[in-house]
Amino acid sequence: MSKLINRENYALIKAFLGDMAEIKPVSESTVERYGFYLRHLLLWAMDVPFAKAYTIRPTLPVYVSNQEGNKGKKLAAETQKKIIGLSRRFFEWAKSRHTGAFKKLPVSWIERLHPVRRKEASFSQEHVFVSVEEAVQLATLPREEGNLAMWRDCAMAARLFLSGERASAAVTSPICAIDFDDLSIRQWPELGVRTKNSKKATTYLLPLPELLEVARFWDAYVRERLLPMDTWYAPIESRWGEQSLSLAEAGKNRNQALNRRLKLLFDKTNLPYKSAHKFRHGHAVFGLLYADSPADYKAVSMNLMHSDIKVTDSIYAILPDQDVKARIARLASNTKAQSEDELHQFIKTMNKAEVSKVLMMLAQRLAA
Questions:
Q1: What is the CA radius of gyration of the chain?
Q2: Tens digit of each residue's pLDDT (9 = 90 or more) over 78-95
Q3: Distance between CA atoms of residues 28 and 33, nearest Å
Q4: For the domain that residue 148 is a member of, what is the CATH number?
Q5: Residue 125 CB neighbours (<10 A)
Q6: Which residues share a beta bridge with 245?
Q7: Which domain holds residue 35?
Q8: How far is it, in rounded angstroms, from Cα 228 to Cα 232?
Q9: DSSP letters of 205-240?
Q10: Is the model's pTM score more than 0.70?
Q11: Fewer Cβ atoms within 10 Å of its own Cβ: the N or the C terminal residue of the chain?
Q12: 248 lies in a domain?
């Protein structure tokens, strides 16, 4: 007889999600996503009460590491991380809210809930991003006469790299949210922009002329023909072989449609396909490569709308091998330059008599 999911476990999950929505308001889609993550927790425990979760084998991290997604592939490392992280928060909540029932659940067991570590090689293979060269190649494809959709897609490819936006935000952003004079984008939920966890921020575009030119050209085109609150990545309709901007509301799965359209661009340029999210990775890597100070690093993190710089560091701050090599090679020269600068500053604090004395000492040293 097959085991069934424990009803009390299900009720606890529902209560936890309800509390999360009250304590820190989140969108309906976010609660739905959290429910998907915690579904794995329910399936792992089955008929065993969550209060006895520490007795279940295999452990939750091992179970999650062996689960498959829709396409028959193992769950992505980032998805596994989110499932385990949210499960840990659930057990912390349960331990504090239902003290009696979860009295025997060890705190040390909850603290040890971490994703199964992957091999370094597999991590390196998974870190894929759109380079600035690829972004330019995609954005500057020759315009085909009458192919309005392709023109729009090229502009979006440029915008994704320039902004580092998530696909769901970029495709729901209205025309009025982007300001090319200020190089800024208002990722504001009240404007209809779908951001992760309904976060609100004004972010900025990279000052890359080739990509800006493409995006600006499309921006001018839609501003002349649509209203400020209409979608920048506008729907396009085709009648009798002629394409035109549509006033129809963008579909719910617009970001998936964007990925299909981007694939056409990759095919035309003979580049290996990368999803819209890989443009975000490319934006981050480009920014971090040119960050000269901790302040620059923090600016890149904030532009990605990360609440913690550790998120940026763990996901995006993986430099290509050739860049690591070049930066390590420059360390010696940077140290020398820094030392020379420090010596110069020190000498400037000395009076003439002290400088003269130091010079005499140096001359004696060299003559020895």
A1: 27
A2: 889 999 999 999 999 999
A3: 9
A4: 1.10.443.10
A5: 9
A6: 236
A7: 7-126
A8: 9
A9: ----HHHHHHHHHHHHHHHHHS-TTSBSS--EEEET
A10: no
A11: N
A12: yes
Q: Which helix (H) or strand (E) holds 201?
A: strand 201-204
From residue 106, give the alpha-carbon distance in Å to each of 20, 46, 58.
23, 20, 17
Domain assignment of residue 223, yes or no: yes
Q: Which one has a higher pLDDT value, 117 or 173?
A: 173
pLDDT of residue 11: 95
Helices then strands, each counted (H, E), the chain: 16, 5
- Name the domain boundary from 126, 159, 177: 126
CA separation, residue 362 to residues 339, 355, 357 (Å): 17, 11, 9
Does 62 score more than 60 pLDDT? yes
- Six-digit token string for 216: 């600006």
Evaluate if residue 67 carries a pLDDT over 80.
Answer: yes
Q: Which residue has the higher pLDDT, 112 or 24?
A: 112
* Rounded-to-integer distance, Cα 306 and Cα 1, Å: 47
Look at residue 2 and tell me if it is in a domain.
no
Rounded Cα distance, 207 and 106, in Å: 52
Residue partners of 24: CB distance under 8 A and separation at least 6: none
Residue 324, amino acid: V
Report d(CA 279, CA 169) in Å as an integer.
13
Provide the pLDDT confidence category of residue 124 given band limits of 50, 70 and 90: very low
3-state SS string over 75-143?
Answer: CCHHHHHHHHHHHHHHHHHHHHHCCCCCCCCCHHHHHCCCCCCCCHHHHHHHCCCCCHHHHHHHHCCCC
Q: Are strands 178-179 and 201-204 parallel, antiparallel or unpaired?
A: unpaired
Does 342 reside within a domain? yes
Whether 70 and 32 have beta carbons less than 8 Å apart is answered as no
| Amino acid occupying residue 360 | M
Among 315, 310, 312, 320, residue whose Cα is nearest residue 289: 320
